[in-house]
Amino acid sequence: MSTTEVPRSFTRMDESTAEQWAVIGAETVAHQDRTADRVLDLLRSLDTIVDGFATDQLTHCLQTATLAERAGADDEVVVAALCHDIGKAVSVPNHPAIAAAIIKPYVREEVYEMIRVHQDFQGRHYYHHFGGNPDARETHRAELTSEQFALAETFADEWDQVAFDPNYDTLPLEHFEPKVRAVFHQARML
To answer: How is the chain split into domains, by residue range?
Structure first.
């Protein structure tokens, strides 16, 4: 190897160079579109998860996004609504944290928070059936701004908790794909 040639990889990060990280950064940017592809694949996989609901989880996510879009929500909110239960493809108990982590580099803070806390906000409508606290959303009031809290309430009360209707005129995934691709096109560096 010549002294001007930069190795493409290393075996230990503590021995890496700035030149190697420049290559990694450039390749990561060049392949950023794979993020949207993976998100769309995860969404499609939700069509096999029903778990006793009136719709499968893909339909629920599509319906939530349809409701958000029809209410005039911006593209980040609509895509987050679409992806809010994407974590169920991996784990139902911690699905909000999974979904929030996936979208965090691509959306503004209040949209990330909307997804991170959505389970406790939606809990107003069903936690009491399990002996839980239907006012669990109040545990987040001190940590969220008033705008974040209001957006999470709108999401949970007007879109998420009502999105299990198999007869609703739900928009298909193909309708949302351009928005998914646009939102996941470039990450915000954290």
So the answer is: 1-31, 32-183
C-alpha dist (Å) from residue 55 to 51, 109, 165: 9, 30, 7
User: Quick one: fold of 32-183?
Assistant: Hypothetical protein af1432 (1.10.3210)
Residues 75, 36: Cα–Cα separation, whole Å: 14
**Residue 81: which residues within 8 A CB-CB, separation 6 or more?**
61, 64, 65, 67, 68, 73, 155, 159, 160
CB contact set of 181 (below 8 Å; sequence gap of 6+): 33, 36
Position 4 pLDDT exceeds 60: no
pLDDT in tens, 133-172: 999 999 999 999 999 999 999 999 999 999 999 999 999 9
Q: Is 117 helix (H, G, I), strand (E, B) or coil?
A: coil
80 contacts 159 by C-beta, under 8 angstroms: no
pLDDT value at residue 189: 64
Contact 28, 130 (CB under 8 A): no
Distance of CA 61 to the CA centre of its chain: 10
Which residues have C-beta within 8 Å of that of residue 115, sequence separation ≥ 6?
A: 80, 83, 84, 96, 99, 100, 103
